[in-house]
Specification:
single chain, 9 helices, 7 strands, 39% helix, 23% strand
Length: 253
Amino acid sequence: MKNFKNQIDFFLRQYLGFSRKNYSEKNESKEGLFAQQKALEREQYLLEKFGLETLKSNSTRQNYLENLYTVDLLERFFELEFRDNLTVLDIGCKNWCYARGEYFFFKRYCKNLILDGIEIDSNRLYTNFYNRREVAKFHIKDLKGAKYISKDFLRHDRRYNYIMWFLPFIIKEPMQKWGLPDKYFQPEKMLSHAYELLNSGGNIFVVNQGLTEYNVQKGLCQKLNIPFILLGEVKSEFLNYEIPMFAMVLNKN
């Protein structure tokens, strides 16, 4: 019954595509956002290293935290060398509210950045009657080279230097709760395809929610003979999640 409802709802979203236009958010003061000295010092370090001043002066408090969290994780677990051109993909980016965090991080290491975010359910509507795509358009509007793609990832064939994958659906129940039909539950095929699109020398950064999903993710990598480095539980000064987050980096030599 749940799958049938999801099939109907997803079909209607895909073909109606209703949304209000011109989504926007107003800047909020960041005064008093952090009480701990450690968080203040880490914020200042990231602001200076990645030039996040425009992010801080043009975001809500929550969106600022989400982007800081993203930059924080990437800065801690990625070591990049500067190059002329860099291509990056975010799989299942939803409304891509953290796009600026990814953009400012990777832009520091290249002259020309192509940053794609792909989402199969881009027409999913919020209570304010904006859909994910309209919200994402706001978050990437000033990011040269950033593009939001409404598409099934398995039909996407561009190659990338780096791939970001936050909370992939590797257990069916969470995917069902998010409203996707069962036919889109293809974790092995999705992971295999992501690895195919990765250029030699590239990495896939995967963040899983909870230890159970983390272990399933490890099992998938082992089954597909994909080399990986376990990072364990990842924490940040900027956001604390009720369910612990675990990460790994997949490598392609």
